[in-house]
Amino acid sequence: MANKKAPAAGWPIVSGEYVVGNPESCVGVVTLGSHGLEQACIDAGAAIAGPCHTENLGIEKVVANYISNPNIRFMVLCGSEVQGHITGQCFKALWENGIGDDGGIIGAKGAIPFLENVGKDAVERFQRQIVEVVDLIDCEDVSKITAAIKECISKDPGAIDEEPMVLDLEGGGAGGEEAEGGFEIEGIPTVVEPDLEACQKLLEKLEYKVGLMTRDIGLASGVSSESVKGFAIGSLLAVVLVGIPIILKFLIG
């Protein structure tokens, strides 16, 4: 029987949309942009299964939960790829190439594939711990996904010979944390007092420009109206001037 270890206390250590199964299972499943596949993955024997939409904070949370459980040795990527973020490809690039000195995932094609709160030590632990990434990206076929999970379980090498590695993401980490409107970074205020004087000056400028635009539109409309009127009168005079000789010729002739 494969050797097992106890995961970190309170595992999974980072909150998310996942469903948790047997913590001694060797398989973790990421359903990317798809929802509704999680319970089938758990029923097939996965330790944890859930979606991941972003190629930065989302990946950080998955890595944190995986390396805090030494029993997880396989990652199954399935479900629809997240357009723009390309999270599935970023996971593969992370496992294959790691991150650079700037935290960027080497070879990742997502929009912002940078890990702010997960350093090289954690990424290298993730690379050592996960022995295989099963690529079922864009597959939502439950039978194929569950078959892949069961195949991984049949190859279970046992827990990695290292203790759980715990990352403090929900405390903010070194680089900051995601808030409702974006990122909260130490040293930068999250609430900014409005400059009322500057706003008033801006409003006055806008009112002046709107007044000029209104005047110009009025003048243009007047010119256009007079032009139409002139054209109509000219056309009428032309008809009269052409029609008079014809009428006279008809009467005389």
TrEMBL record:
Q: Where does this one sit in the cell?
A: Cell membrane
Ranges where the Tetrahydromethanopterin S-methyltransferase F subunit domain occurs:
187-248
The catalytic activity of this protein is classed by the Enzyme Commission as: 7.2.1.4
For molecular function, the Gene Ontology terms on record are:
cobalt ion binding; tetrahydromethanopterin S-methyltransferase activity
- Gene Ontology annotations of biological process type: methanogenesis, from carbon dioxide; methylation; one-carbon metabolic process
What's this protein's family per the entry? Answer: Belongs to the MtrA family.
> Which enzyme type, at the first EC level?
translocase
Q: Which InterPro entries match?
A: MeTrfase_F_su, MeTrfase_MtrA/MtxA, MtrA
- Catalytic activities: 5-methyl-5,6,7,8-tetrahydromethanopterin + coenzyme M + 2 Na(+)(in) = 5,6,7,8-tetrahydromethanopterin + methyl-coenzyme M + 2 Na(+)(out)
The organism encoding this protein is Methanotorris igneus (strain DSM 5666 / JCM 11834 / Kol 5)
Work out whether the entry's keyword set contains Methyltransferase. yes
Cofactor(s) needed by this chain: 5-hydroxybenzimidazolylcob(I)amide
Q: Which Pfam families does this one have?
A: MtrA (PF04208), MtrF (PF09472)
Q: What is this protein called?
A: Tetrahydromethanopterin S-methyltransferase subunit A
